[in-house]
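User: quick one, fold this
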Amino acid sequence: MFVTLKPKTQEGREVVAAYGSIWLIRDEAQKVAFTRRRGSWLLVESPHDTRWVHRESDKDFLVEPYGSDLDAAQAENLRRQLTRVAAPAPAQTSRKNPFVAAALSFIFGPVGYLYVGWRYAVLGLGVLAIFATVLALINFPVPAWMKYVILAVFAQKAYAFVSIRNELIDTGSTEVSALDTFPVAAMAMSDLLVGVGMVYAGVIGLYVAVRLLLEGSVLRGLLVLVIGTPVLVYIAGFVFGLIAMGIDAVFAPKMKKVFRRSRGGVAG
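Assistant:
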C-alpha cells in the first residue's frame, strides 16, 4: 500500500525534498501509455504530486516497501495524509478523444495536430520538413505508398499524446498547464521525428528484403532482412535522435522530459 522512494538522481532528490519519501500506491500496471517498457509500474501519490515509478528499476528512485508493520488504524491515518487533493485542470487542457486525434492525423498529417494544439501542428510541419530534407540530402527513396506509413506514425503519436494529456488531467498533475507550451510541444515533436525516421528505415529495409526474396535472391534478401534492416533502423534512430536532441536543446533546454518519462510529474 505504501512505498519509500529513495533518490538515485538529482531529479529524484528534488522530488523527495519537495514531496517527501513516503508515497501511497494508487494503482499498478504492467504497461503504461508513455513508454514501451514493461512493468511493474506503480502509480504513487503524495499530498501534492502523482507519478508513475518502475517498481524494479526506476530511473530516479530505488522503490522499497514501507509500513508492513503498521496496524490498520496507522495505515488508514497514513493513507489520509498521503491522499492528494487535486486541483481542477485548466479549461484549456480539457480532455480530448485519442481516436479522433489519430484519425485526423492520419487523414491530414501534421495539420491534424491542430486537434491536439496549434503548437503541435506548427512543429509537426517542421518535423515533416526536416524529415524530407534529410532524405533529400542522402538521396533515399520515398515510394508513393510510404506516405501512408508516415501518416500512420503521425496517427499513433497523436493517439499517444492525447492519451498522456488525459492521464495528466485525470491525475490532477501539476504539469497539465505545461502541455500547451512550445517546449513541451517541441519535445513531443522531436520524439515524433525519431519515430518517423526509424519506422521509415524499418519499412524500407523490409521492402527491399521482400523484393529480393521474390526475385529469387534468397541469400541477399535474408541478409538485408536479418542484418541490413536492423542496421538501417539503428542508423536512422541515431541520426534523427541527434536532430531531436538539437530541437530539445533549442526549444526546451530546461524542461522536464514530459514525453520521455512517466507523465504528470511522473518519474521513470
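User: anything notable?
Assistant: DSSP finds seven helices and five strands in the chain.
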